[in-house]
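Run log // design_07
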């Protein structure tokens, strides 16, 4: 640190006029609190003139936010601190872990790479125009993701999600006094012109749904082995559950038996109530669904435990009879213990044939799903999420209120309206429109002839 040669109080003790050794010009030093100072050149080597220039320099200093060493902080390190605070929110139950994962993905896969490409390394490099080309940059990319797959640009929805996260980070930097609020970029989102109904995860059309269900139930035809039959019926039950509940696949994988309740309605039918964990995308919620479907899934799970225990008992008898060698059991006897009955802490969709009492991996489920689709030969590209889309679509077409459907499925009214508005036209294509019974020969009267349907 430079050595001070002259130091005199000025402006009634609010600042000091100082001169460093080996520097000709005097400086005004203003205390900004604690050990923090702002030094500004007084542009003179004359002490008397320096005191005269002190007032105008002081006004200029006070009109600007104090400079801080934290403003030189590496941007990537600042993002690490930001994510640490989000992790603490997850631990306290204030944020879903999936949301934190999305923040991390956006920051490290797109936001920081963009900054590096533009030479933005520290917070001090950020100004009003820093991110003005962010949307255009990612609309023009030709490769995306961890595996650098080919693409013709990221979607507006993905870019807008990045911008939302970027705004949150910039606001956080300002709140922590790491970024000058005057330099904070003003980010605007893209207009999202994507046709959500036709592009991703489309809902099954009624005739397609019937055909899909027919092929789905045919999976159990001609199967005699109890374990194989149970596993195929497990997949059938999983599909039914997704359609009946409208849950996201990752939400279903986390539901435990203790989160499920079957209640009797006034009309004598039963409804299922599911408690969705607050660690999921939109936080905790309760989902109402068909109670009979939920009962069948529980019954199927109990049947799987019974089949597995019958296999274990057969194995143990064969071990005792010396017909098989010791395998997976006690080191001395080879006897396997029976597995316990499902408890409230077990997963609703667990596979009792897995030693870990876990569910099938999502890729395994997707492969089953795609095999059924392949038999149907549909023109539309249905996905696992199409089951959720179908639940929402059919609920709306049955006249259920949009806000209730949105709340039950853990999504927003805006997303429901953007994604599913206009469904009635597609699903009622056979009854909408005016169709002539015969080709008119002449005159305008024939234009009012319509089908009786």
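design_07 sequence
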């Amino acid at each position: 640190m430079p050595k001070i040669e002259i130091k005199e109080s000025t402006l009634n003790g609010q600042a000091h006029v100082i001169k460093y050794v080996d520097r000709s010009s005097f400086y005004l030093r203003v205390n900004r609190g604690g050990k923090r100072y702002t030094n500004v050149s007084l542009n003179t080597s004359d002490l008397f003139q320096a005191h005269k220039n002190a007032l105008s320099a002081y006004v200029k200093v006070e009109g600007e936010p104090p400079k801080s060493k934290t403003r030189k902080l590496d941007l990537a390190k600042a993002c690490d601190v930001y994510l640490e605070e989000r992790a603490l929110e997850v631990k306290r139950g204030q944020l879903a872990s999936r949301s934190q994962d999305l923040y991390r993905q956006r920051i490290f896969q797109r936001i920081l790479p963009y900054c590096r490409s533009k030479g933005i390394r520290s917070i001090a490099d950020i100004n009003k125009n820093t991110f003005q080309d962010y949307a255009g940059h990612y609309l023009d990319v030709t490769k995306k993701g961890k595996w650098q797959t080919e693409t013709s640009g990221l979607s507006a929805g993905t870019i807008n999600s990045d911008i939302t996260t970027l705004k949150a980070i910039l606001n956080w930097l300002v709140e922590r006094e790491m970024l000058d609020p005057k330099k904070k970029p003003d980010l605007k989102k893209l207009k999202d012109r994507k046709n959500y109904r036709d592009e991703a995860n489309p809902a099954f059309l009624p005739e397609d749904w019937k055909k899909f269900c027919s092929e789905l139930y045919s999976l159990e035809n001609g199967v005699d082995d109890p374990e194989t039959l149970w596993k195929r019926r497990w997949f059938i039950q999983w599909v039914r559950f997704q359609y009946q509940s409208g849950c996201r696949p990752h939400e279903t994988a986390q539901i435990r038996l203790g989160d499920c309740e079957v209640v009797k309605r006034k009309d004598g039918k039963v409804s299922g109530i599911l408690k969705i964990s607050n660690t999921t995308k939109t936080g905790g919620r309760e989902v109402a669904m068909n109670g009979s479907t939920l009962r069948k899934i529980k019954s199927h799970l109990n049947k799987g435990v019974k089949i597995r225990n019958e296999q274990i008992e057969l194995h143990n008898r064969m071990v005792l009879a010396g017909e098989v060698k010791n395998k997976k059991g006690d080191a001395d006897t080879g006897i396997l213990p029976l597995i316990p009955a499902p408890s409230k802490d077990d997963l609703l969709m667990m596979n009792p044939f897995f030693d870990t009492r876990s569910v099938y991996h999502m890729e395994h489920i997707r492969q089953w799903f795609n095999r059924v689709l392949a038999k149907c030969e549909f023109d539309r590209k249905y996905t696992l999420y199409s089951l959720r889309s179908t639940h929402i679509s059919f609920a709306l077409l049955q006249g259920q209120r949009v806000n209730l459907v949105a709340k039950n499925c853990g999504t927003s009214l805006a997303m429901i309206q953007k994604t599913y508005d206009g469904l009635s036209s597609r699903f009622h294509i056979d009854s909408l429109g005016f169709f002539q019974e015969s080709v008119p020969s002449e005159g305008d009267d024939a234009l009012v002839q319509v089908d009786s349907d």
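Residues 206-381 form a domain with the hpI Integrase; Chain A fold (CATH 1.10.443).
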